[in-house]
């Protein structure tokens, strides 16, 4: 065997007093490449396998799957089956995207291999997040394998605590950091960025990324060393070379068919139709050409050759003339239109249109029962804010199966990160908030439209956000050492450019960022220029939003839940809940309200209507009433004594009705007037600390037309034959002797 199971090949690197271990040879030896990646008590196994394709699929079939095993944290899954279910969680999907995005561009174009990368979390120590280990481990596994790969790269995270950058902060440190940037870097440049910040200036973000790239270089060297010790020979790969004769013929036919004119049409639909006509004309011309008519292999390459001509023309026009597909210059944002309160029964809604991209955003407010509970490695966590992004096929005029894609999950997560910093605290605004962004039309930058529309819908719903948030997508055309930054890119500019750089934030600073590139990497100068240009675009969009909604609405929608907080004596919480939850269930069933009870005595009520809220408060406060002298209460006889009876006049509040106060005439024996469990109306006549006296006699006198006065029910004189027991709490020896 190449590697004994008890003697694997191991390479380590130390970054800021943390040791990162790359190991291969202990497990998964039948995979093309496998790396056991460890930091502290966190372990991730990453493998890569491939098989040769019989024919091209028209795209590179790379599959990346990240999975968290609950045993890694000593937990049993909370699913019904008590096992990790087949569908990945939102967290697993987002990490899969983090792994995929930096490695996909590093495989050579035209590679005829079906590639699968699997990252499995085997151990989690609740401090070192496995996501960045999975990113680095994926690069290392591919670098070890026989697959051609223009790596390695490293995944890492940068935080900032008290103004100081921290590399790969622990989970506890991230809670006090004002920025969190996950990035991938090669030996010379950044290749991917995603993160969030709390209104951090653009220059600080660039400094953080450049600092982080420099810090992770030992992990690049460790991967190179691991490959030297255990790497496989790379499979032969010869890049495809286009036939120059065919290229020339396609160029000639494209020119005749008006390709350049088609790429100058501003309207997306019209441009799409014109491009189709060009393609049809080129294919028809080749079909009539004896040199190519029967060459199926050559004809199959023609669509890619036409696309290459389109891309070259668009890029050249931008570089030489500074004019883009729709006629804009490089810094102009497309025309913006906004309409708020478009849906009559939702809690908040808005349509945000930028060019041919249009988002319908809807905000819904809920109670604590609507919180999202997520089963994770580190225990159940609760989300009170959710943003969901939908991209139906009609938004681009296509027919496709309707299902939730990784892209939709990723775009929703980015928009959620971007809006989260401006939301009020749960103490100030104790609602669960859900925003849904429906992409109803799309021509680029729909995720940033979700940020803008989502912010507007929150304001329309009356959510007291601290500041408006807007987002813009930036593009890049890079030719040699020269580069041009594009503001607010179209869908075609995204496909034909070298970068998709999304930046969201307030006028004060950045709250969300995501960058994907298609070149080897970006220098600090390019990123700094892109960030500054993005700020200009963002400020313009914020001003357009301010014209429609300058601030959140002062009141919530009448259709939103009605909320109120009550504070009761903690001792009576058990009464409100009741045996087995009987009382609180009766309240919520009768009113339709959601009631959240804290042990401190704080009760939070969410009711569907104002009337339901008032009724819920009444039913709860019934259990927290204080008796008042002179007030009548309907109570139940709980105990019969020789000297009178004990009546429960309020929940957990009892009063003594002395035998002299049971009737307007003399009562020789208590049982002659009352029975156990009987209801009677009594008046409270004395409160002495926890001791309460009540009178049925006073109520009867009032019914007979006599006005009750406190002296009418004063404590009876001792000469009365039946009062001897009214001594020392009503249980003195006098009462005992009367029985004999």
From TrEMBL:
Keywords: Cytoplasm, Magnesium, Metal-binding, Nucleotidyltransferase, RNA-binding, Transferase. Its EC number is 2.7.7.8. Its cofactor is Mg(2+). Residues 703-740 are annotated as: Disordered. GO terms for molecular function: 3'-5'-RNA exonuclease activity; magnesium ion binding; polyribonucleotide nucleotidyltransferase activity; RNA binding. InterPro entries: ExoRNase_PH_dom1, ExoRNase_PH_dom2, ExoRNase_PH_dom2_sf, KH_dom, KH_dom_type_1, KH_dom_type_1_sf, NA-bd_OB-fold, PNPase. Residues 730-740 have a biased composition (Basic residues). Mg(2+) binds at residues 494, 500. It catalyses: RNA(n+1) + phosphate = RNA(n) + a ribonucleoside 5'-diphosphate. Residues 703-729 have a biased composition (Basic and acidic residues). One of its GO terms (biological process) is mRNA catabolic process. It holds the Pfam family RNase_PH. This is Polyribonucleotide nucleotidyltransferase. It comes from Candidatus Desulfovibrio intestinipullorum. The gene is pnp.
